[in-house]
Write a structure and sequence with these properties.
The chain is of the alpha/beta class and 293 residues long. It is built from nine helices and ten strands. The longest helix is centred in the first third of the chain and has 25 residues. It is globular.
Length: 293
Amino acid sequence: YHWDLPQWAGDLGGWLNRDSIYWYSEYSQKLFKEIGDVVPMWITHNEPWCASILSYGIGEHAPGHKDYREALIAAHHILLSHGEAVKIFRDMNIKESQIGITLNLTPAYPATEKEEDYLAATYADGFFNRWFLVPIFKGKYPVDMIELYKKEFGEFDFIKNEDLGIISQPIDFLAINFYSRSIVKYDENSLIKGEAVEGPGKKTDMGWEISPQSLYDLLKRIDKEYTNMPIYITENGAAFKDIVNKDEVHDQERIEYVKEHLKYAIKFIEDGGNLKGYFLWSLLDNFEWAEGY
């Protein structure tokens, strides 16, 4: 699922409707039945953070809402639909095929050595990463984020007793989309008590800091804190202007970007990490959901 919610489902509330879990389950079951044995690797969701937080909380993607309680409900239902799809996949006993999920993960670093900036980085990590990693791999939501969100949005009455057991169904691999890092300083007025600050590194044309070392940091942390199962980098890349010179685009900046990220990916493998694949985003020029061409 890459955010292509059918219009009829959107009209019924989209991922805010708990029935969306069952719609997605039916969809998954149909796909597994028809082509399950010819697809070697299944990814249930691509970037659930975008389909929930970015779409229902920040309002950048459809349906364009700006309600963080809605975003948390949508995220929970998406994670539940993931778990239900994994259960169906296991029950159907599809031979020689694996199933996992793709998370877009953004390592967070404190802007200074101040304790309050470390707290801001911890909350940023919860906002971007742990809200999905912890339920999938540990069967719970991060306690610090629950406490933070409860102050703003009240009780999490949309979470039922059996939900976390479904979300944490064992998967075969974890896929990661990585582009940049986040550097944050404390901001009392922010929902997550942090404000992003500009990093010192070079930027892509989208203004994203280039930080290959952060990919290594992220992979090491996943390996240490969550899982040593096979990991695939399913997206990594950069936007740069295509400067044509004598009918050629030499693309040196992008070559350097890929080279440096591959260097740290290989370092992770050499250090014993279970990285099994790297996919560049993208083979073709891309029309972004919110950024245009």
